[in-house]
Amino acid sequence: MRLVILILFAYLMGSIPTGFIITMKMLNIDIRKHGSGNVGATNAARKLGFKMGALVALADILKGFFPVLIAGFVLSNNYPASAIYLVGIAAILGHDNSIFLKFDGGKGVATTFGVMLGISPPGFLIMALIWLGISFTLKIVSVASLIGAFSLPVTAYILSGDYYQVLFAAIIFLSIVVTHRGNIQRLLRGEENPINLNDS
Question: Does any domain span residue 194?
């Protein structure tokens, strides 16, 4: 029962449209009406500058981090470590399919960072290094996000050997593939736009 409550809590917390709230409160701008229409950090950075994108990213990271952190304390040793992945997946799905935005949302990358920070700091670090390296060299965030997410099940297998953790990490990777369908199509057509991470 505790696990079910935590999953519901994680989904609701993930559903909080932080990008929409931040841009509306600070700039009176509905980010959904600009750029790709996505409420995530990348669209905020493209249209409103790096600092705003970083702020949205931080908020989205916390949406993933806090539910799994709380789950770690509440579930303690009574549940397998893989159970916390279910809480993390719920937070990511909430971000991607927010109940407050008619089941629209972001692409789940920043929230995934938060989930991994809470579940597996080494996994978080590997994904973050991959993301940063590709983002600052190729300047194509979607490629960085997809390759970074691909590292999750690989890292879970190497670090834990727990097939349930590998399975749930693979589900997170697949969820990011799904939310990046449009990006993948643009990549295949050579039309994906780079992003300048040095913008103010």
Answer: no
Please give the share of the chain, as a percent, with pLDDT higher than 90. Answer: 73
The three-state DSSP-derived secondary structure of the chain is CHHHHHHHHHHHHHHCCHHHHHHHHHHCCCHHHCCCCCCCHHHHHHHHCHHHHHHHHHHHHHHHHHHHHHHHHHHCCCCCHHHHHHHHHHHHHHHHCEHHHCCECCCCHHHHHHHHHHHCHHHHHHHHHHHHHHHHHCCCHHHHHHHHHHHHHHHHHHHCCCHHHHHHHHHHHHHHHHHCHHHHHHHHHCCCCCCCCCCC
Residue 197 lies in a domain: no
Range of the structural domain that residue 119 is part of:
1-189
Q: What residue type is 163 in one-letter code? A: Y
What is the tens place of the pLDDT at every residue in 51-101? 999 999 999 999 999 999 999 999 877 788 888 999 999 999 999 999 999
Q: The tokens of 173 are what? A: 């990777």
Please name the residue that has the structure tokens 């009574």: 78
Q: Check if the beta carbon of residue 91 is closer than 8 Å to that of residue 71.
A: no
Count of structural domains within the chain: 1
